[in-house]
Each structure stands twice: as structure tokens, then as C-alpha cells.
Amino acid sequence: MPRSTPKILAGTAVNAASAARKVIARKPREEEAAEAAPAKKAPAKKATAKKAAPAKKAAAPAKKAAAAAKKAAAPAKKAAPKKAGPVKPENLAVKEGEEAWTKAELAEVVKELKDHAARLRQEVEEQEAELAGIMKDAGDGAGHDQADMGATSYERDHELTVVANSREMLAQTERALARIDDGTYGVCESCGQPIGKMRVMAFPRATLCMDCKKREERR
Questions:
Q1: Which of 165, 207, 203, 174 minimizes the C-alpha distance to 190?
Q2: How confident is the model at residue 115, as a pLDDT?
Q3: What whole-number distance in Å separates Cα of residue 198 and Cα of residue 215?
Q4: Can you tell me the distance from the alpha carbon of 116 to that of 27, in angstroms, rounded to the nearest whole number?
Q5: Contact 156, 138 (CB under 8 A)
Q6: CA dist., res. 21 & res. 25, Å (int)
Q7: I need a surface site. Which of 46, 90, 113, 134 has the fewest CB within 10 A?
Q8: What does the pLDDT read at residue 118?
Q9: How many helices (H) and strands (E) does the chain have?
Q10: How far is CA 176 from the centre of its chain?
């Protein structure tokens, strides 16, 4: 018994030392594991921060694009076309050998056209009112004899022709005034050559030169 006791004690000491080594070995591993765990979570937060950053950066180009759009819209208002001034008489077309238009000559033609247009507008209104009365009488003509119906029909056709002619002359007159404003007055609408100052002064509504007018009448 006394001899075996030291061996037992020695064995116990060896076991205790081995257990102590294991405990010491485990502690660094546990500490390393504990330190390693938060290290893995940290990148996730950084990654989130990196992903959120482009969203803020993406908003900046959108604001810049909106500002650029406003700047681009501003010049559009300034670029509105300016109204053309009155056409100079000397710039109107004339035939070779004819003198250029003067302000007095053009003013006389414009006055004549405007006066004629005013008369034609009044005539058209009166003729249309008269035509409306004839059409109404024709609609209420039940019981009229054939002679009365024939006379009413003739009168209606005549008024229709008169109204159509007055409307056509009014359209020609207004077109002549418009051509004076845009500088194309005195140019033949068919061949593009000058109509002739003398012809235009004699017939201000003329839109064709003499050659084109004769050609049209032959058709």
C-alpha cells in the first residue's frame, strides 16, 4: 500500500496536468471563435452601407437632368418667331422695264382692295339673307301652281349664282391683301413670273399674268 500511493499520486498529477493543458488549449480556441464571429457580421453592415450609397448618388443625376430640362425649355420661349414688318413697295415684283412700286401707288391699291372687300362682305350678307327667304318660301310653297314654282326655282338658282360670284370675288380680294403682306403680290400664281405693274394697278385682284390668263380662258 505505501509503495503504490506515490504511483497513484503521480498518475493523478499527470492527468491533472493533461486536463489543464486541454482547458488552456480550449480557451484560446473559444476566444478566437468569439472574435471571429463578429468579424463575419461586420462585412454585412459594410456591404449594406455600400449598397445604400449608389441610391443617393443616383438621385444626383436625376436632379441634374431636371435642371437641364428647365434650362432647355427657357430658350424655347425666347426663340418665338418675330413678326415680319411691312413689305417695302420697292421689293414687290415688276416686269422688266417697269419702274418699282412707290409707297403712294401701293397705298392706293391697298385702299381700293379694302374698300372693295368691305362692299363685297355687305353684299354677301344681303344676298345670303335674300336667298334664305327664297328657300323658305320654296319650302312653304304647297298649293302653288307650276308657274309660280318655276319662277321661284329660277330666282333661287339666280341668287345662288350671284352669291357664289360675290364670295369668289371676296376671296380673291382678301388673297390679294394677304399677298401684299407676305411680299408675293404681283407674282403670277401659275408660272411664277411678274404679272406686270400696270395690269395689277388696273385689276388689283389679278393673280395671273396675261399669258396664263389667256391660256386659262381657252380651256
A1: 207
A2: 96
A3: 20
A4: 117
A5: yes
A6: 6
A7: 46
A8: 96
A9: 5, 0
A10: 30
Residues in the chain: 219
Neighbours of 165 (CB within 10 A): 14
Q: What is the distance between the alpha carbons of residues 164 and 158, in angstroms, rounded to a whole number?
A: 10
C-alpha cell at 149: 314654282
Domains of the chain: 93-218 (1.20.120.910)
Residue with cell 403712294: 104
What is d(CA 169, CA 117) in angstroms, rounded to the nearest whole number?
A: 8
Distance CA 209, CA 199 (A): 8
What letter would DSSP give residue 210? H
The CB-based long-range contact list for 41-48 (8 Å cut-off, 24+ gap) reads none
Asked if 93 and 187 count as a contact pair (C-beta separation under 8 A), the reply is yes
**Residue whose cell numbers read 445604400:** 52
Amino acid letter, residue 22:
K
Residues of the chain scoring pLDDT < 70: 1-86, 138-150
- Contact between 169 and 148 under an 8 Å Cβ cutoff? The reply is no
> Would you state the pLDDT for residue 133?
83
Q: Across the strands, what pairs with 194?
A: 187
Question: What distance in Å separates the CA atoms of residue 97 and residue 109, rounded to the nearest whole number?
Answer: 21
- Report the Cα 56 to chain-centroid distance in Å: 36
Looking at this protein, which amino acid is placed at residue 28? P
143: left (phi over 0), alpha (psi -120 to 50) or beta: left
